Amino acid sequence: MPTIAERLKDLREQNQVKREELAQVLGVSVRSISHYESGNRRPDYEGLLALADYFNVSLDYLVGRSNDPEKH
Q1: Is the pLDDT of residue 68 over 90?
Q2: pLDDT tens, residue by residue, 6-61
Q3: φ, ψ for residue 28 (rounded to 5)?
Q4: How many angstroms separate the CA atoms of 17 and 14, rounded?
Q5: Global pTM?
């Protein structure tokens, strides 16, 4: 099952979003984004919701509980 870190990095790269841009959207540092993608830290609940909304995927997909990115 994919991890949040793997999904986040894949989504960011597939959508050609720079870490700086994503950090600005979430209101966190670029270092935090790097930590999220490496699995050293996890976004808080509000951050997870913001990421799911930003990439237009379901929260279950983002956290690896589903392979279906569609929101239902």
Answers
A1: no
A2: 999 999 999 999 999 999 999 999 999 999 999 999 999 999 999 999 999 999 99
A3: -125, 175
A4: 8
A5: 0.89
Domains along the chain with CATH numbers? 4-62 (1.10.260.40)
Residue type, 10: D
Amino acid at 40: N
**How many CB atoms neighbour CB 13 within 10 A?**
10
Q: How far is CA 72 from CA 6, 9, 47, 64, in A?
A: 22, 23, 20, 16
Side chain identity, residue 53? D
